[in-house]
């Protein structure tokens, strides 16, 4: 009987072997492995793109925007308090990181909503939250240092030193990065004139770059500059840079000194024994020393009592329309 | 006790062979049928799994492709009568920064609450990118930017599809270049599926 049924056993064995072979060699196994590899590769690629974007774009964009806002806030802070900053670097760092100055919310002093929810810490928190939501990664950003300085007269450079760690379930990225960016000072209020003219509300002086070349100055261009309150850059001048104006540091900047004419029509009294170049005027370099001052008579029809010291009369090519004050 | 040798059936001879075939033939036939069935099932399984793979791969490639196109193409490099430089939106002053990528520009429209413009912008920007047998959506910050108005066919297709894949990216940008006012960061998502 057993012998008679032998063939069906062979059949069952053949079926079992075929089933095992199909299970082993079915492409499903390869495909799922490939799928896993592909999904890990896709995830790493997506997080890698995010880390690249963070380092190459996000930090720079945020730094540029917040550095601008911080500098603007500091200028408005000086306008509100009527006094200069003791140390620009520490004030800038505190404002951009925390939105505070000397522990006080700077927006509450200036009355402008600029730094509220707009600090480096806020924006780092924002990108970390979005990355967690979009890519399921943990982002840790540690700020080592942030600073602002000038290397050119019309721009402020901002620098940020950060440690970045991005952790996902498949890999971890670590980097220390120094981000540098620059923004124009044009349109920002001049802190030096803000503090010095606090009592004169009409004297609003924002930074406006003069387009006159150094060898093209004459009475017409000086008149236009007075009308438009433009700022002028002279190579190797004795003027302070924009950032030095925050701390009333009136000395030669070396790289970035800028100056502007003081409009006598916006002053009370208009007639003062000073050279009407802003940093000379408010530092009283020629106060009551009328022997070194010259009336620029050619401008007195519109800007009465406008005076300059000898060096500046020569520099602005006004010798023919100037006469000694005394 | 001596062991008797087993009797071996002798099928030799025309009569015996006829007998053998008559009794055992059905086993061989059954064996062949079963083997054929097994091979056929195996072949079907293998071929069906091969058919499934390209489907998901294609959808994945399309979602990644659309996202990469939107996030990697700048306005200045995009020749389009509606969304490119000198196009309708440019002339209306709706687009001012040619360095923005298409995704950033869509994000900026969202940040400015110009959702209608964002919808039309994405529609124009993605013409020809996704084949007609596929449907797609673009989301920013959890809000559907395109298509703003979903047809019933669109919704049914999305609900009934076998494979729907997404591609994600983070987008951000500058609202005002002078002040550096920022928008974002937003999660941007592209969903693609077969109709």
What is this structure, in a nutshell?
The complex is a heterodimer of chains A (326) and B (195). Chain A contains 9 helices and 10 strands.
Question: What is this structure's SSE topology?
Answer:
The complex is a heterodimer of chains A (326) and B (195).
Chain A: H1 6-25, H2 28-81, H3 88-98, E1 100-101, E2 104-105, H4 106-110, H5 120-135, E3 138-152, E4 155-167, E5 172-184, H6 191-196, H7 219-228, E6 231-233, E7 258-260, H8 278-281, E8 293-296, E9 307-309, H9 310-315, E10 322-324
Antiparallel strand pairs in A: 1-2, 3-4, 4-5, 6-7, 8-9, 8-10
Chain B: H1 14-72, H2 88-91, H3 102-111, H4 115-125, E1 134-140, E2 143-146, H5 152-160, E3 164-176, E4 181-194
Antiparallel strand pairs in B: 1-2, 1-4, 3-4
Helix pairs in contact in B: 3-4
Verbal overview:
The complex is a heterodimer of chains A (326) and B (195). With 326 residues, chain A is of the alpha+beta class. Chain A has helices at 6-25, 28-81, 88-98, 106-110, 120-135, 191-196, 219-228, 278-281, 310-315; strands spanning 100-101, 104-105, 138-152, 155-167, 172-184, 231-233, 258-260, 293-296, 307-309, 322-324. The longest helix of chain A has 54 residues, at 28-81. The relative contact order of chain A is 0.09. Chain B is an alpha+beta fold. Helix content of chain B is 48%, strand content 19%. Chain B has a 4-stranded antiparallel sheet with strand order 2-1-4-3, sandwiched between helices. In chain B, helix 3 runs antiparallel to helix 4 (115-125). The longest helix of chain B has 59 residues, at 14-72. The radius of gyration of chain B is 33 Å and the shape is rod-shaped. The model of chain B has no long low-confidence stretch (mean pLDDT 85). The A-B interface holds A 7-8, 10-11, 14-15, 18-19, 21-22, 26-28, 31, 42, 46, 49-50, 53, 57-58, 61-62, 64-66, 68-69, 72, 123, 126-127, 130-131, 133-135, 183, 187 and B 24, 27-28, 30-31, 34-35, 38-39, 41-42, 45-46, 49-50, 53, 60, 64, 168-170, 172-174, 178-182, 184-189.
């Amino acid at each position: 009987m057993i012998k008679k049924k032998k063939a069906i056993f062979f059949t069952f064995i053949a079926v079992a072997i075929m089933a095992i072979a199909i299970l082993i060699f079915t492409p499903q196994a390869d495909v799922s492995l490939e799928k896993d590899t592909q999904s890990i590769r896709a995830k790493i690629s997506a997080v890698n793109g995010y880390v690249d974007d963070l380092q190459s774009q996000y930090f720079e964009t945020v730094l540029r925007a917040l550095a601008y806002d911080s500098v603007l806030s500091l200028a408005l802070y000086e306008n509100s308090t009527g006094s200069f900053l003791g140390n620009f670097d520490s004030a800038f760092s505190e404002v951009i990181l925390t939105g505070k100055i000397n522990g006080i919310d700077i927006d509450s002093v200036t009355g402008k909503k600029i730094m509220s929810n707009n600090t480096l810490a806020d924006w780092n928190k924002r990108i970390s939250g979005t990355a967690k939501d979009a890519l399921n990664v943990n982002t840790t950003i540690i700020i080592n240092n942030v600073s602002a300085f000038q290397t050119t007269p019309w721009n402020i450079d901002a620098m940020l030193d950060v440690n970045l760690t991005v952790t996902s379930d498949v890999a971890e990225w670590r980097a220390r990065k120094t981000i540098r960016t620059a923004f124009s000072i044009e349109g920002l209020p001049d802190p030096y004139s803000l503090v010095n003219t606090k009592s004169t509300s009409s004297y609003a002086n924002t930074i406006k770059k003069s387009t006159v070349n150094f060898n093209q100055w004459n009475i017409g261009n000086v008149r236009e500059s007075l009308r438009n309150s433009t700022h002028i850059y002279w190579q190797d001048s004795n003027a302070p840079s924009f950032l030095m104006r925050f701390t009333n540091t009136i000395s030669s900047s070396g790289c970035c000194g800028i100056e502007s004419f003081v409009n006598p029509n916006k002053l009370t009294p208009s007639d003062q024994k000073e050279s009407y170049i802003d940093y000379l005027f408010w530092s009283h370099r020629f106060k009551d020393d009328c022997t070194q001052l010259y009336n620029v008579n050619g401008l007195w029809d519109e800007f009465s009592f406008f005076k300059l010291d000898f060096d500046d009369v020569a520099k602005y090519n006004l010798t023919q329309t100037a006469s000694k004050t005394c | 006790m001596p062991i008797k040798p087993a009797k071996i059936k002798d099928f030799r001879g025309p009569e015996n062979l006829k007998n053998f075939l008559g009794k055992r033939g059905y086993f061989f036939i059954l064996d062949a049928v079963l083997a054929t069935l097994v091979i056929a099932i195996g072949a079907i399984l293998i071929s069906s799994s091969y058919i499934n793979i390209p489907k998901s791969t294609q959808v994945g490639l399309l979602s990644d492709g659309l996202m990469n196109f939107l996030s990697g193409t700048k306005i200045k490099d995009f020749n389009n009568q509606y969304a490119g430089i000198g196009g309708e939106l440019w002339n209306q002053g709706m687009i001012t920064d040619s360095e923005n990528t298409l995704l950033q520009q869509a994000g900026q429209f969202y940040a400015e609450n110009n959702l209608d413009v964002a919808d039309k912008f994405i529609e124009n920007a993605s013409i020809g990118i996704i084949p007609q047998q596929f449907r797609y959506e673009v989301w920013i910050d959890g809000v559907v930017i395109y298509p703003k108005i979903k047809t019933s066919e669109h919704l049914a297709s999305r609900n009934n599809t076998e494979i729907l894949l997404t591609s994600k990216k983070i987008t951000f940008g500058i609202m005002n270049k002078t002040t550096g006012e920022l928008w974002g960061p937003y999660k941007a998502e592209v969903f693609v599926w077969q109709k």
